[in-house]
Structure formats: C-alpha cells, structure tokens
Design a protein that fits this description.
- The chain is an alpha/beta fold and 166 residues long.
- It has one domain: Rossmann fold (3-Layer(aba) Sandwich), CATH 3.40.50.
- It is built from 4 helices and 7 strands.
- It has helices at 6-17, 33-45, 63-66, 97-107; strands at residues 26-30, 52-54, 85-93, 114-122, 134-138, 147-153, 159-165.
- The protein has a 5-stranded parallel beta sheet with strand order 2-1-3-4-5. The chain has a two-stranded antiparallel ribbon with strand order 6-7.
- Strand 1, helix 2 and strand 2 (52-54) form a beta-alpha-beta unit.
- The longest helix has 13 residues, at 33-45.
- The two termini are 16 Å apart.
Length: 166
C-alpha cells in the first residue's frame, strides 16, 4: 500500500467540512492524532468556538482487560456541548470502538444538537456500526489487523501517516 499524503488529506477534509460549518460549530479532537488533526482543521476553518480535546482512556470497553493507557491525558472541552453542533475528529477510523468511547464521554458534558465524525482515513475493519460523515480517504481494501496506520506530527507541525506492524 502506498502511504497517502496526510497534508493533502487534511486539506481535503477541511474542504468537506467547510460548507457545513455554522457559527456554533465546535471541533473536539480525540487524543492524540485526532487532536493534532483537529488543531489543523480548527485553524484552516477559522472557527471561533474553542477547540476541545478528549481522551477516551477511561471510556474504552477494553479498559478492564488492558488497564489504563500508559499516558492518559486530560479531557478539555471549553465550549458549550449542550445543543451545539459538534464535529468529533479522529485520525484513523478502524473498529469504531474509540469513536464509541468518545461519544460516551462527550455526552457526559451535555446533549449536542448533532455529532458528526470527521476522519482522515477510514481503514476498514469496523466492529461497531459507526461511519464518518467527513472522510478524506477510504482505503479500497481493509488493512490487516496486524497493521496499524498512525498519524505523526513532526517538530515543525507537519502531519504524515505511517504504516506499521501492530
């Protein structure tokens, strides 16, 4: 598989979201890669609503089996959630379990008017009925479970995708 250009995908994703942005639209990025992407989208879209960050470590359905993630971070949602249109942002959509965990946590902050999911890449392999409204690239064939597609951010802020063995 040829690794797609994350910077170009980010621009494509912003173009998909832009027509649906309202003055109340808020972006919430799922840590870590989703937050990096959300930061870029927030700037590109020129949103006035503060950017939110969510860490799903305590909301994962495998928490009891795997324990706490090695580096849990604070969830920070400085915008109003109740009645607001929210775009939940993640880098790669795989099983849908991270998205489910993020939705559970988000609803602890209030009931949004709408939640849309924006992802850079849909790698296939869904285990839950979750789909992104905004997606820059859907892989033609799902990646093997033994592979991981990860978003990386360099020191200068450039985004890139890396394919690894899980």
């Amino acid at each position: 598989m040829q690794i797609p250009d994350a910077e170009a995908l980010c621009r494509e994703l912003a173009a998909q979201i832009r027509p649906h942005v309202t003055p109340d639209t808020a972006l919430v990025g799922i840590r870590t890669g989703g937050l990096w992407l959300a930061e870029r989208l927030h700037a590109e879209l020129g949103l006035a609503t503060p950017l939110g960050a969510i860490d799903v470590s305590f909301y994962r359905d495998d928490y009891a089996a795997k324990g706490l993630h090695a580096n849990p971070q604070r969830t920070d949602i400085p915008c109003r959630v109740e009645g607001a249109p929210i775009v939940l942002v993640d880098d790669v959509l795989y099983t849908g379990r991270t998205t489910r965990a993020a939705l559970n946590e988000l609803f602890d902050y209030g009931r949004p008017a709408r939640v849309d999911l924006a992802v850079l890449v849909d790698r296939g392999g869904r285990e839950l009925p979750i789909a992104a409204r905004f997606c820059a690239l859907t892989l033609p064939e799902p990646l093997a479970a033994s592979q991981a597609l990860e978003l990386e951010r360099t020191a200068d802020g450039t985004l890139s995708l890396r394919l690894t063995d899980a």
